[in-house]
Amino acid sequence: MTPVVRFSALARVLHWLMAAMILGMLFVGVFMAATEGPAYATLVALHRPMGIAILLLAGVRLANRLLVPPPPLPAGMPLVQKIAAIGSHIILYALMFAMPLVGWGMLSAGAYPVVLWGPVRLPPILPHDPVLFAALRHLHSWLAFTLFGVIVVHLGAALLHGLILRDGVFPAMASWRRRRRDIA
């Protein structure tokens, strides 16, 4: 068996933790859009601090990626796939920062507090402006649709590499796999 060059343990933990959090946030956002009353307030109380947690973890994740470079892509991977892989990761990182910042800015423009827990609130990052609030709310929704689409493509690429190509890309991030099978 050929050993797999893997992402650092911190990179793998952050990847899977954030994957679960981001998917959870997308579903919470969908339910928020379709809910009213006490259930809506509960979802909002969950959505805001999770968004800030994702923002903070994205910063840790980016710092880790810059300090501990990822494993190289397979040498035989076509150039167009390498460009797509790098580009999709840039888009994912941009969205991991943009979504929570736009959400925070939207709430600030709407004069809504960003309550983390109990009395702990974040300061507004934009002035109160109903027109800006509406524009940012629209942008937040479109960024969510974009994030969902990029995640679907990312998942498809992971399955392609893990199930069909078996080129070591998937096991590099899958923390439960220690070695890949030789392709006979």
UniProtKB/TrEMBL annotation:
Cofactor(s) in the UniProt record: heme b
Compartments reported by the entry: Cell membrane
Domain Cytochrome b561 bacterial/Ni-hydrogenase: residue ranges: 6-175
Segments passing through the bilayer: 12-34, 40-62, 83-107, 142-165
GO molecular function: electron transfer activity; heme binding; metal ion binding
Mode of membrane association: Multi-pass membrane protein
GO CC, alphabetical: plasma membrane
This protein's UniProt keywords: Cell membrane, Electron transport, Heme, Iron, Membrane, Metal-binding, Transmembrane, Transmembrane helix, Transport
Pfam families: Ni_hydr_CYTB (PF01292)
Protein name listed in UniProt: Cytochrome b
Family assignment from sequence similarity: Belongs to the cytochrome b561 family.
Chief localisation class: membrane
GO biological process, one term: respiratory electron transport chain
Keyword Nucleotide-binding: no
Superkingdom of this protein's organism: Bacteria
Source organism of the structure: Gluconacetobacter azotocaptans
